[in-house]
Amino acid sequence: MAQSGKGKLNYRCPSCFMRDLDIDMFYDKDKKEYYCIRCQYTGTEEDVLSKNEMVRTRYGAMSTRYTKFDFD
User: Fold this and answer.
1) Within 13 A of 13's CA, how many CA atoms are on the CB side?
2) DSSP assignment string, 43-63
3) Which of 10, 12, 58, 62 has its CA 20 to 30 A from that of 28?
4) Vertex 51 angle, CA 33 and 40, to 5°
């Protein structure tokens, strides 16, 4: 998704990202936290980054091409 004026950077909502939805989070400058308008998730930048890294483990082998399958 394109970067707009929502905050410092576009971060994906970890809760929505676990369900394969690409939803950008908004940044609240007063509370210094990110929030999702779709699922009501809120968290600090560190919290969002750590949970997104946890979700990304699902896609760890996405760029690996498997050509040999040993099922025997």
Assistant:
1) 19
2) E-HHHHHHHHHHHHGGGTTTT
3) 58
4) 50
Token pair for 22: 């690409």
Longest dimension (CA), the chain: 59
Query: Which pairing describes strands 33-35 and 26-28: parallel, antiparallel, or unpaired?
Result: antiparallel
pLDDT in tens, 6-49: 545 688 899 998 888 888 999 999 999 999 999 989 999 999 99
Q: With a threshold of 0.90, does the pTM exceed it?
A: no
CB within 8 Å of 49: residues ≥ 6 apart: 11
**Is the CB of residue 61 less than 8 Å from the CB of residue 69?**
no
Single out the residue of 2, 27, 22, 1 nearest to residue 12, CA to CA: 22
